[in-house]
Amino acid sequence: MDTMMILLSLGIFTGFFVQTITGFAGALIALPFLLFAMPLPDAVGYLSIFYMISTPIHVYKEWHNINLDLLKKLAVSSFFGLLVGIIVLAYGQPIILKKALGIFIILFVLNSLRSAKEIKLFSKMKFLFGFLGGFFSGLFSTGGPLYLIIVKNETSDVKIMRATMFGVLGLITLFRIPVLAFEGILTWQQLYNSLYVLPFFILALVLGKKVYLFLNDTMLKKIMLSLLFVSGFVLLLKK
User: Fold this and answer.
1) Number of domains in the chain
2) Sorted alphabetically, which InterPro entries does this protein's record hold (predicted)?
3) What pTM was estimated for this model as a whole?
């Protein structure tokens, strides 16, 4: 196994292990590994393949906890944001946008730690956050933190929060796969290479589910907030 496949396997295992526990942050954790071995468009292609596999599994298991009303509200804005993000991905690499997202996430986490009172998002802000979530999901596969901010404002129940995140990312995956294929970012070679990584991916799902069962709601919320903070720094520092 060459260096690229080792880093791909390690990134996918680590990312989807965390994703299974928290409901988000898979791409944020995996990207630093993948970007050491491949260009950003290829990394987004690989992540999309494994999201395509994991999403139906998680959505099926967590369907009864998903906030479907919120999911419907995010569908339209996310779709248009995703289209714009993938177009930018195909024709440029605006690193400054990644850093701006990192700064925003860090500021949000610091505000959450400073104040016990949640920031309430108005309806138009939710549309904007949905668009931006779709945009960064298409561009960097890193829209999860923005969606978590929306979902966190809609519910304090960590089980509904986690399940709805699976639903949102499932929606994004459904939109993203055909657009990536149309733009030529998703290739048959990536699908072939993914077969070798599949055992590590399956192991990540199994171990992640076992760890999740040992966590209480308070600990899971702290982990989510910590991952948001770390993901902000990863986006800010990664070139």
Assistant:
1) 1
2) TM_pro_TauE-like, TSUP
3) 0.73
